[in-house]
Amino acid sequence: MYLQPDSASNWDDWSGLYRDLREKDSDKRLHRVVKRGLDILGSATALLVFTPLMAVVALLIKVTSKGPILFRQSRVGYRGVPFTFLKFRTMRHSNNGSVHREFIQRFISGEMSPAGTAPVYKITDDPRVTRIGKFLRKTSLDELPQFWNVLTGKMSLVGPRPPIPYEVEYYDIWHRRRVLEVKPGLTGLWQVKGRSRTSFNDMVRLDLQYAKTWSIWLDLKILFETPLAMISGDGAY
User: Where residue 235 falls among pLDDT bands split at 50, 70, 90?
Assistant: First the structure.
């Protein structure tokens, strides 16, 4: 079951599975205002600071492979509303998306163990990835354009990773809560607790744990730990 993002009635269908979500909406209004303020300040600052680095990355992508500099993809956002997800392109432009879809299906169903696979959104030793793309993925520099998604309000600095529409088709009922609780984020608990070496179910559990225990201090802690995870490159491909 995939939530049709442009249908308001479907939000009612999904939230009917989790009646307590509506109560949480009213309880966390102030929290959302504070979180949004942090998102605006953090993303605007990051875009200013990282503009020179992003320009260098864009140039490297342009001169080393054919295709656009940015990778644009529809993702499922908060409450199932779609948005255009931005990354630096790390694959050859003519890659076959069916390979990733099959991988996602097998990973969510548990047919692949995290020890033998890469992250939810990437495949170990993927032949479609360019040479510069491997470096960008290893260092997470391919994620820098997502600060624009944060600034425009489609994402948060911290939250669950936004799923691809066809990924949601394979969700169990309890998995769906991760797109209902909070906005998707650029980083989150699973990125700083094993990143790619985490199984799908454990990743969802970490997302739900984050939503349940959210505080401004937890966000700051995750944001502080994220650069360390990026530098180590642990579990990134």
Answer: very low
